[in-house]
Specification:
- The chain is an alpha/beta fold and 314 residues long.
- The protein has one domain (8-55, 72-206, 227-309): Aldolase class I (TIM Barrel, Alpha-Beta Barrel).
- 32% of the residues lie in helices and 19% in strands.
- The protein has helices at 80-94, 117-127, 149-154, 156-169, 185-194, 233-246, 260-269, 279-282, 286-300, and strands at residues 8-10, 13-15, 19-21, 43-45, 62-65, 68-71, 107-112, 135-139, 174-177, 199-202, 206-209, 211-212, 217-218, 224-228, 251-254, 273-276.
- The strands form 4 sheets. Strands 3-16-15-10-9-8-7-4 form an 8-stranded parallel β-sheet. Strands 5-6-14-11 form a 4-stranded antiparallel β-sheet, with no helix packed on it. A two-stranded antiparallel ribbon has the order 1-2.
- It binds flavin mononucleotide (FMN).
């Protein structure tokens, strides 16, 4: 029987397969671990953590939309100290270092958020001491944080600056997570690369709004929220394709991935790995069916190595 290589290289870190979870849609896997073995994932990407606890936005902060959802959680999180003990502690106990036939363990990508440069620096500095954090994903693109996130994420100069500040102090490879809420995402991707980013992840949610006509009121207390789910998938594929052409660093593609075919589109557009987000709310095991579906595709098309698919459409 031919073996089909599923492992990929993400800025010097080997992943057993190219499928991971999207930040904020999986916690740190604590609840999901009762549905499946987390050791099957390429990587677990944790919910955004900040140096101090954040309360998040007032409720209601999620609502359904056609083929998607809006959220305005506002990056609620318990802060670094609780996260390090509870979440990284759980992942340390749960993930085996050399699991499965590939001999490669599931990696941990810690998503970081901040209101200011100082807050990012504080959190990244603390993470340098955490052995279980294999890579950092820096969220400069959350549309729900008024004091900073979106400002950093939409201005190329700001992106280059925050990236270089973080790159200098980070012990782990730095993945910059980009906002789609810009005119030309390739300008932002190039700025992150110029600042020294090791990889990019895209896309975060697209800013949207829903009005409850019966109540004549906004559906979300925050008025606007981030749109995610299948509705944004074609936008995400287009942006991954454009950025893969514009930069030399690897890209993690996400946005509306629900099936292996959706993930394969991302790889073919130029992504090295993919993240499954909103779809996990509907079916907790979506990431696993995406992994299995990619393997079946390799078998059906007699492709020996998943890396042959990366950027294969020109
Ligand atoms: C409820 C919710 C919470 C999220 N929280 C975060 C977060 O903390 N940090 C972050 O970088 N992205 C966050 N995101 C964005 C997702 O990681 C992802 O980029 C986006 O939802 C697009 O992928 P999807 O359509 O597969 O969900 C969140 C998304 C949702 C739906």
């Amino acid at each position: 029987m031919t073996t089909h290589n599923m492992s990929v290289d993400l800025c010097g870190v080997r992943l057993k397969n190219p499928v991971m979870t999207a930040s904020g849609t999986f916690g740190s896997g604590i609840e999901f671990s009762s549905f499946f073995d987390l050791n099957r994932l390429g990587a677990v990407v944790t919910k955004g953590v900040s140096s101090v606890p954040w309360e998040g936005n007032p409720t209601p902060r999620i609502c359904e939309t056609p083929s998607g959802m809006l959220n305005a959680i506002g990056l609620q999180n318990p802060g670094f100290d609780v996260f390090a003990k509870r979440d990284l502690g759980f992942l340390e106990e749960t993930l085996r270092p050399d699991e499965g036939s590939s001999g490669i363990g599931t990696k941990v990508i810690v998503n970081v958020c901040g209101h200011s440069e100082e807050e990012y620096v504080d959190c990244v500095t603390k993470l340098a001491a955490e052995k279980r954090a294999d890579l950092l994903e820096i969220n400069i693109s959350c549309p729900n944080v008024k004091e900073g996130g979106i400002a950093f994420g939409t201005d190329p100069k700001g992106v280059e600056r925050i990236t270089s500040v973080i790159r200098k102090i980070a012990r782990q490879p730095v993945i910059m997570k980009l906002s789609p809420n810009v005119t030309d995402i390739t300008e932002i991707a190039k700025a992150a690369q110029a600042g020294g980013a090791d990889a990019l992840s895209m896309i975060n949610t697209l800013t949207g709004m829903k009005i409850d006509v019966e109540r004549r009121a906004f559906a979300l207390a925050n008025k606007t929220g981030g749109l995610s789910g299948p509705a944004i998938h074609p936008v995400a594929v287009r942006m991954v394709y454009q950025c893969a052409k514009a930069v030399q660093i690897p890209i993690i593609g996400m946005g509306g991935i629900r099936t292996a075919a959706d993930a394969l589109e991302m790889l073919m557009a130029g992504a090295t790995a993919v993240s499954v987000g909103t779809a996990s709310f509907h079916d907790q095991t979506t990431a696993l069916s995406v992994i299995d579906g990619i393997r079946e595709y390799l078998e059906r098309h007699q492709i020996a190595d998943v890396r042959e698919l990366i950027g294969c459409v020109e």
